[in-house]
Amino acid sequence: xxxxxxxxxxxxxxxxxxxxxxxxxxxxxxxxxxxxxxxxxxxxxxxxxxxxxxxxxxxxxxxxxxxxxxxxxxxxxxxxxxxxxxxxxxxxxxxxxxxxxxxxxxxxxxxxxxxxxxxxxxxxxxxxxxxxxxxxxxxxxxxxxxxxxxxxxxxxxxxxxxxxxxxxxxxxxxxxxxxxxxxxxxxxxxxxxxxxxxxxxxxxxxxxxxxxxxxxxxxxxxxx
Length: 224
What we know:
This protein is an all-alpha fold.
């Protein structure tokens, strides 16, 4: 499994990155505002959130050949290209009302959350990913470790990303997405993908474990 994931982290972005970009270009008829939202948001998110989680907070660690501290320099494209492709595969039509915006948020919440929970469980089992959270400190399984953070971070990201992308489509369809409006909307979507999942995870961690979950948890020593 570790060998397969080690190969995937280089092969997948090389294939899925250009392919997903081309598919979104075709879907949006070359509209750079919509393409940037669909393709670039996941890449940026996967540099910011895991970058902080690994090298600043040190709760996560990636054990790969090429690293910047605890973080692999191509991580944004590993997650971003696959996520953009998943989003394109489930995208059916441009949003035209509030219901279609909500539907996009729900669909991508489910799809991105489900796929990445499974991926992180496999990455944890292979040793490529290490997460020093409360379940890890308690000696629980890789599934329990992933389920402590992954549903909020990936499902929450999917909801904000899907809803934000559909909102951009709606605004563009109404002819109100000027460059200045796009810049503000893009920043708002990116901000929501960063803040909402993190806030949800922190609140959950406080309720479950009595701490914020933003620092490595010391592993309990077995009693003599």
